[in-house]
Amino acid sequence: MTALEARLQEDQKEAMKTGDKMLLGLIRLLRSQLQYARMQAGEGWSEEKAQEVLSAAAKTRRESISLFEKGGRMDLVEKEKAELALLERYLPAQLSDQELATLIELCISEVGARDLKDIGKVMAALMQRVKGRADGKVLNERVRARLSGAQAI
Length: 153
Known about the structure:
By secondary structure, this protein is mainly alpha-helical.
C-alpha cells in the first residue's frame, strides 16, 4: 500500500465519522480506481502510478466542468468543482506560471529547439520534469506558442 492509499484509507474513516458524504463518495471512488489500476499494473505498482490515477481523475473532472458549463448545467458544474477541490488535496502542488515558463525555456535550450518541428523533443523533456504538477494540454499550448514565435508564456 502506498502512502497515498494509506492517507485515503484514513481520510475515509474520518469522513465516515463526520458524515461527509461527498468526501466519502469521492474517496470510495478513488480507492476503487486505485485498486483496479494496481491489479492492472501487477508488480510495477508505485506511488507515482497512484498519483497518475488521481491526476487522471482530476483531469476528468476539469473536462466535465467545461462540458457542463457549455451545456448550461450549473448544478453539475458546482458538484464537479466541489469534488475537484476535494481531489486536489491528494495531488502534488501545481507549478506556477513563472515556474512553467522557466522550465519551458530550460527544456527548449537543452534540446536546442528552434521551431515547431522540435515540439516533441521539448514536450518529452518537459513532461519528465513536471510529472503530474502541470496539465499536459496547457504545457503543449504554451510550448507551441513559444516555438511559433509568440511570447505568450
